[in-house]
Amino acid sequence: MQFHYSLDLQFFAGEKTEKATPKKRQDVRKKGQTAKSQDLITAFILLAVFFVLLFTGPKMLDQFFTIFHQTFEVYMHQDVTVNSISQIALELFQELLMLLAPVMIAALVGAVLANYLQVGFMFTPESLKVKLEKLDPIKGAKRIFSIRAIVELLKSLLKVSIIGGIVFAILWFNMNDLLGLMNIAIGSSFALIASITVKLGLFASGGLLFLSLFDYLYQKYDFEKSIRMSKQDIKEENKSMEGDPLIRSRIRQRQREMAMRRMMQEVPNADVVITNPTHYAIALKYDENKMDAPYVLAKGVDFIAQKIKLIAKEHDVIMVENRPLARGLYDQAEIGDAIPEEFFKAVAEILAYVYRVQKKI
Known about the structure:
It is a single chain. By secondary structure, the chain is mainly alpha-helical. The chain folds into 2 domains: 33-121 and 136-231, no CATH class; 254-360, secretion proteins EscU (name from scop, 3-Layer(aba) Sandwich). It contains 13 helices and 4 strands. The chain has a 4-stranded mixed beta sheet with strand order 3-2-1-4, with helices on both faces. The longest helix is centred in the middle third of the chain and has 41 residues, at 186-226. The protein is elongated, with a radius of gyration of 38 Å. The relative contact order is 0.09.
């Protein structure tokens, strides 16, 4: 019975039910694993491209006709030589590059923007490494017949159905214009086809963007599920982090900083600050409801002592110079502790002086 009970505990400890820790997220991010929808990237690229075509389409069409006329009216009448062919090819390449540059830039901006909105700035050389396990046919078959593959198939069918419906609706509403293409000039035909194509692209991209938002939510859910950790994983991670000297030093440094801030926040509440005067500073407080004797609120040497004195001065805390007392209290009394009995008389005289001064003020 005891054996079965321990097995159950091990099973539940190994079950991945806990959210990933920040360290686990950082590790998988270094490997290039993040929640990202490729459909969202495609939608951004298409929208950017078709928006550019919407505003620059007429000008691009004019440039295309210019290249077309130049080809048949100028280049066709030139002598065919090695130099002429090279010159024609170079000119055509430059003109086509200028023609397509806005579209290419728009596609690049759309892709970068979509990636940045999803994962931020991320450079992961580790994800570029060749992994031979990806060539394993058994693992490949498992990926093909997995639940994820079925989900991707359903997503593809949904995309084809919705985007196909959008394309059919736009073509149906423009059916009369399309049937009348044979009755208009070639230039007008090109312009009409380009206008309908841009309209198709914008509406189809909008539909894809709508679907990709749901795809992104699914990818995020699937990613969070894939990086879940078991309770045992979290324990081992904490153990390894505690064993890291760098992590330990950072924790100690953070603890010292927090303790220092708390100590400095207590200085304004002190009754008196006893100084050396330059090297030591000890802030004391007497509260009969808390302790029977005065106790130390803060203490420090050199830079910390100067900071204690600066805060005390800003809050009108009286400072008294007493070198042996300051040194003795610093060596023998800890923060939060009552002063040793041997200093009672000296501290009582100082507090009596402070109370007299405060009454006069």
